From TrEMBL:
CDD domains: HemD. Gene3D superfamilies: 3.40.50.10090. SUPFAM superfamilies: HemD-like (SSF69618). This is Uroporphyrinogen-III synthase. Keywords: Heme biosynthesis, Lyase, Porphyrin biosynthesis. It catalyses: hydroxymethylbilane = uroporphyrinogen III + H2O. One of its GO terms (biological process) is heme B biosynthetic process. InterPro entries: 4pyrrol_syn_uPrphyn_synt_sf, 4pyrrol_synth_uPrphyn_synth, UROS/Hem4. GO terms for molecular function: uroporphyrinogen-III synthase activity. Residues 20-188 form the Tetrapyrrole biosynthesis uroporphyrinogen III synthase domain. Belongs to the uroporphyrinogen-III synthase family. Catalyzes cyclization of the linear tetrapyrrole, hydroxymethylbilane, to the macrocyclic uroporphyrinogen III, the branch point for the various sub-pathways leading to the wide diversity of porphyrins. Porphyrins act as cofactors for a multitude of enzymes that perform a variety of processes within the cell such as methionine synthesis (vitamin B12) or oxygen transport (heme). It comes from Hypocryptadius cinnamomeus.
Length: 196
């Protein structure tokens, strides 16, 4: 039997996609079609803010995409050198709050130490942050997507913990979605034996 999964494949570097692998164990043939794409924005502003850790009390990441934005910034040689020489160390004396293991792993890849990854969602992370931060302290820098939920900012604002959000990516329909779906379903018709 065939299964269509509307999701991005896992990074090729980390081996086969776990959904494909698991479904294969049950003799199911799975196909992945990505439905979303991400456009990164405000990267110069992001690096400008990252260049001034003294202005912030820490970092907050609720999405792997926000870390992808930072990794894009660090591809530029001069920015990568600045990060390696001093910025990374300056940020490491401040907390880096994250939701989830995937985001925590990406934080580690850029040389920072994640906290709160077991929180599981933005609401629980907000509670975790509130238990560690003092009201009216330096703002936490929150690189995020245009479609972020307001749970975390609202809880922190109610507790007097400043948060500076910066939109660093936008979510859109994958440009090849329509073509990929048409191709997939056309192939299914061709693969099916028609009995009259």
């Amino acid at each position: 039997m065939k299964v269509l999964l509307l999701k991005d494949p896992k990074d090729k570097d980390s081996g086969p996609d776990p959904y494909i692998k698991e479904l294969g164990l049950y003799s199911l043939e799975a196909t992945l079609i990505p439905v979303l794409s991400f456009e990164f924005t405000s990267l110069d502003s992001l690096f400008e803010k990252l260049s001034h850790p003294e202005c912030y009390g820490g970092l907050v990441f609720t999405s792997p995409r926000a870390l992808e934005a930072i990794k894009i910034c660090l591809k530029e040689k001069s920015k990568k050198e600045a990060w390696s020489k001093s910025l990374k160390q300056m940020w490491n004396i401040k907390p880096t709050y994250v939701v989830g293991k995937a985001t925590a792993s990406l934080v580690e890849e850029i040389g920072l130490v994640p906290q709160g990854e077991k929180a599981g969602n933005a609401e629980k992370l907000a509670e975790y942050i509130c238990s560690r931060e003092k009201p009216n302290s330096s703002a936490l820098l929150f690189p995020c997507g245009a479609l972020k939920r307001e749970v975390l900012p609202t809880v922190l604002r109610e507790k007097g913990i400043p948060l500076e959000s910066l939109t660093v990516y936008q979510t859109a329909q994958h440009p090849d979605l329509q073509e990929s779906l048409s191709s997939y379903f056309s192939q299914q018709v061709l693969d099916t034996d028609v009995v009259w």
